[in-house]
Amino acid sequence: MTDRYTESPVRQEPGVRVLGIEAPAPRFALVVVWTVIAAFLTMQVVDILNEGITAVTVACSATVLPAILGLQLVHTLPRFRRLRARYGRWTLLGQALLTVVPVLLLGGPWGGMGGFTGASMLILLPRRVALPAFGALIVAIGVGTAHTEQGTVVNVLYMMMSTLVTGIIVYSLTLLSDLTLAVHEAQEDITRVAVIKERLRFARDLHDLLGFTLSAITLKSELAHTMVNRSPERARTELESIVELSRQALRDVREVARSYRSMSLLTELSSARSVLSAAGIDAHLRVDCGRLSGSADTVLATVLREGVTNVIRHSKASRCTIDAVAQEGVISLRLANDGVPPRLRELGRCRPEQLARDNGGLSNLALRLSEVGGTFSAEVREDGWFHLEASAAADAHETPAPDADASDDESLVG
């Protein structure tokens, strides 16, 4: 809604459409409101007719009642919120005149219409104005009734109480209808947010999972191309590795489409050594964490994959060290490499907002670690090396036997 509407002091109600379709519950709420309004109007008509049918009674009933009903529609239905925003004061003034003036002509029974005007005041006006205006209306109905033939003390009090009760009931039901509409709009917002979050998850997983694989495929393809004539067997080996990486990328895409993919830190450590070696980078890996399971394994494996991808794609590294260490139930992963581009050497320690601005992959990693209660940091130190550190509590930490542990370390240390 534009500013010309929001500047008006008249309160604006929510719409009735949820995801482009009118919701059954808001429709039912409006039906309840208008059933009650119709019942009160019918009661007022009966009271007026009980006083006797005259030309003035017929004229007012035929002209003023439809006008009051139409104005009440404008003041209540959400579809007229723009009209209310522009002309709400004038339509409210018209309803007030159509309520008070006939009291002087028809007497006390017409005063019952004041309840609808009071409800409109509470609906449209700011509270600091609505309450005094409603009180003034009740007094005006009482004074008008007192100057008629039915102006006994009992009738005056009855019409004032009728105006008060009718106004509160109609206003309360209208407010309940508005709240129902607001709840449905909130449900629509929740649905939209859920869709957006799923899209972000999908994009994040594609970036984190496929970035490494595609970089490795590119690197090994270039290596195979250079080895075709000089070392056909080496080229064949690299091509076989490319085929396996391509199949892995296809599996990753399918897993991402279904749900969050489980990954193994030890498997990624082995892949990292292979890819770094193929890139001609002197890689040194130290593993002292055993085999993990659960969210810590997947998140740290994702961190390692993204970190190695950045080493290959965004640096001219000649050396890289990777440490995966378990200590007091916390798994720490550290990756460091030289060859940092000059434009990044002045960053120092990256804050979260820097990660989001300078490197979407690192910001994804920080988000993943925060979701499991872990920590993440990335910085370029004075020696020109880039350092990435991540830690997370081990969901389930299995300590392997000494021989197995030594075997794993020996196979992973380059």
UniProtKB/TrEMBL annotation:
<dbReference type="InterPro" id="IPR036890">
    <property type="entry name" value="HATPase_C_sf"/>
</dbReference>
<keyword id="KW-0808">Transferase</keyword>
<dbReference type="GO" id="GO:0016020">
    <property type="term" value="C:membrane"/>
</dbReference>
<feature type="transmembrane region" description="Helical">
    <location>
        <begin position="87"/>
        <end position="109"/>
    </location>
</feature>
<keyword id="KW-0902">Two-component regulatory system</keyword>
<feature type="domain" description="Signal transduction histidine kinase subgroup 3 dimerisation and phosphoacceptor">
    <location>
        <begin position="198"/>
        <end position="264"/>
    </location>
</feature>
<protein>
    <submittedName>
        <fullName>Two-component system sensor histidine kinase DesK</fullName>
        <ecNumber>2.7.13.3</ecNumber>
    </submittedName>
</protein>
<keyword id="KW-0418">Kinase</keyword>
<dbReference type="InterPro" id="IPR011712">
    <property type="entry name" value="Sig_transdc_His_kin_sub3_dim/P"/>
</dbReference>
<feature type="region of interest" description="Disordered">
    <location>
        <begin position="391"/>
        <end position="414"/>
    </location>
</feature>
<feature type="compositionally biased region" description="Acidic residues">
    <location>
        <begin position="405"/>
        <end position="414"/>
    </location>
</feature>
<feature type="transmembrane region" description="Helical">
    <location>
        <begin position="153"/>
        <end position="173"/>
    </location>
</feature>
<keyword id="KW-1133">Transmembrane helix</keyword>
<dbReference type="GO" id="GO:0046983">
    <property type="term" value="F:protein dimerization activity"/>
</dbReference>
<feature type="transmembrane region" description="Helical">
    <location>
        <begin position="28"/>
        <end position="46"/>
    </location>
</feature>
<dbReference type="GO" id="GO:0000155">
    <property type="term" value="F:phosphorelay sensor kinase activity"/>
</dbReference>
<dbReference type="InterPro" id="IPR050482">
    <property type="entry name" value="Sensor_HK_TwoCompSys"/>
</dbReference>
<feature type="transmembrane region" description="Helical">
    <location>
        <begin position="52"/>
        <end position="75"/>
    </location>
</feature>
<dbReference type="Pfam" id="PF07730">
    <property type="entry name" value="HisKA_3"/>
</dbReference>
<keyword id="KW-0472">Membrane</keyword>
<keyword id="KW-0812">Transmembrane</keyword>
<feature type="transmembrane region" description="Helical">
    <location>
        <begin position="129"/>
        <end position="146"/>
    </location>
</feature>
